[in-house]
């Protein structure tokens, strides 16, 4: 992409009124999200390589994921709250530089401790990126908040899906040092986010990104207690989704290797199938929520996946791969709807909502990886999948979510 053309497109978008979604900005955010999550997906994608090279057990694999996810989880709400008060347009680009540093360290790590530091650097970069990028996506939405979040999030899902595929065909054959090649992705992300930062700074100068706080939705206001309870329910739903997702992102390749005896490259391709379905589900969830309401999507996406998760531990290789498609598709459709629902519940707190929910999601993913890793060491990887099959049943709590009024028209 030509830098001047991109800069001109983003600058022109800043000058136009937000009558509809700002396509150039949303595309730039989606692309940068792809690059960001591609980088962070390399770590779990090369776990089999790291396990062999450093003689790690499943518990240490889980600690690596926890190091990345927990760093991101703890920092994101802090970053979101801070940028609600004082937006930082170029923090997005700065976060990408931290991810770059983590990548380079990962490529040359000499011990388990240095692997943990590399994971923490990538997690910190992610923590800076997500809350502010989510705010910019809402600002560029033109009122179609679900669509904007889907476009933004699908970039991340695509990056997460592509990462294992690239790892299978680049890192696995050429060794851990080839991770440094992905520094080019971080540099590209830095350039794109610098352009987005300039657009965002211009919008801030126009006063377009200053939050206007009103009640949740357009209906009767909810009590503080009901709002707190609703946020807690949403976080529990995130827990069920990301704990289950951790069983795939961290251990699906091991499950396939152990149960069906496939090669590492075949396992990475099958993981790509699941992650590709996750990306498609993310695209679908936001627009459906715009049209039919967030609660409908949240309810159906989390509970609707239960029959497929229950069948997975009993399937052969062919049906295991087939079942991962509806599981990824249905489960992923919830996240854009949950995020926009929370933004409507807490207007004027876009950064805090983004930081809290992305951070909690990453934290649950990390905690899930650590817990499931220890469980796999003690009971076997197949038992982990048999147990996790019941996690989506927690989605029944969605029945207690209040129905909010029409979508907010505030940034």
From TrEMBL:
- Outline the extent of the Major facilitator superfamily (MFS) profile domain: 25-407
Question: What's the superkingdom here?
Answer: Bacteria
Tell me where the transmembrane regions lie.
112-130, 151-172, 178-200, 227-257, 269-289, 296-312, 318-340, 352-371, 383-401
Listed under GO cellular component are: plasma membrane
Q: Which CDD domains match?
A: MFS_FsR
User: Does the keyword section mention Cell membrane?
Assistant: no
Q: Which UniProt keywords apply?
A: Membrane, Transmembrane, Transmembrane helix
Q: What GO MF annotations does this protein's record show?
A: transmembrane transporter activity
Does Ion transport count among this protein's keywords? no
Q: Which InterPro entries does the annotation name?
A: MFS (IPR011701), MFS_dom (IPR020846), MFS_trans_sf (IPR036259)
Q: Specify the protein name.
A: Major facilitator superfamily MFS_1
The species is: Methylobacterium nodulans (strain LMG 21967 / CNCM I-2342 / ORS 2060)
């Amino acid at each position: 992409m030509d830098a001047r053309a991109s800069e001109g497109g983003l600058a022109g978008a800043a000058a136009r009124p937000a009558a509809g979604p700002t396509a150039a900005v949303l595309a730039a955010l989606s692309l940068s999200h792809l690059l960001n999550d591609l980088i962070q997906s390399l770590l779990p994608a090369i776990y089999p390589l790291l396990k062999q090279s450093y003689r790690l057990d499943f518990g240490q694999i889980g600690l690596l994921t926890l190091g990345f996810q927990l760093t991101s989880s703890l920092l994101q709400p802090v970053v979101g709250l801070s940028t609600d008060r004082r937006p930082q347009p170029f923090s997005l680009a700065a976060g990408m530089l931290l991810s770059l540093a983590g990548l380079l360290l990962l490529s040359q790590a000499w011990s388990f401790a240095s692997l943990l530091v590399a994971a923490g650097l990538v997690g910190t970069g992610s923590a800076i990126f997500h809350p502010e990028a989510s705010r910019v996506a809402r600002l560029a939405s033109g009122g179609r908040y679900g669509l904007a979040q889907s476009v933004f999030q699908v970039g991340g899902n695509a990056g997460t899906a592509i990462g294992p595929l690239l790892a299978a065909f680049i890192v696995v054959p050429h060794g851990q040092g080839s991770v440094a090649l992905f520094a080019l992705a971080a540099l590209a992300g830095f350039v794109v986010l610098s352009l987005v930062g300039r657009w965002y700074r211009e919008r801030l100068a126009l006063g377009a990104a200053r939050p206007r706080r009103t009640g949740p939705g357009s209906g009767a206001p909810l009590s503080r207690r009901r709002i707190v309870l609703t946020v807690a329910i949403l976080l529990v739903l995130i827990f069920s989704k990301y704990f289950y997702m951790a069983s795939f992102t961290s251990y699906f390749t091991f499950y396939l290797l152990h149960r069906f005896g496939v090669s590492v490259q075949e396992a990475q391709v099958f993981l790509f199938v699941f992650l590709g379905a996750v990306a498609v589900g993310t695209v679908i969830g936001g627009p459906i929520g715009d049209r039919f309401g967030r609660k409908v999507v949240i309810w159906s996406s989390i509970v609707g996946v239960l029959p497929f998760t229950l069948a997975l531990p009993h399937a052969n290789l062919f049906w295991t791969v087939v079942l991962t498609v509806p599981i990824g598709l249905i489960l992923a459709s919830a996240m854009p709807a949950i995020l926009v629902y929370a933004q409507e519940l807490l207007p004027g707190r876009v950064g805090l909502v983004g930081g809290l929910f992305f951070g909690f999601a990453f934290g649950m993913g990390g905690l899930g990886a650590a817990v499931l890793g220890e469980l796999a060491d003690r009971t076997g990887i197949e038992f982990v999948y048999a147990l996790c099959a019941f996690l989506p049943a927690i989605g029944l709590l969605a029945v207690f979510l209040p129905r909010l009024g029409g979508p907010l028209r505030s940034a």
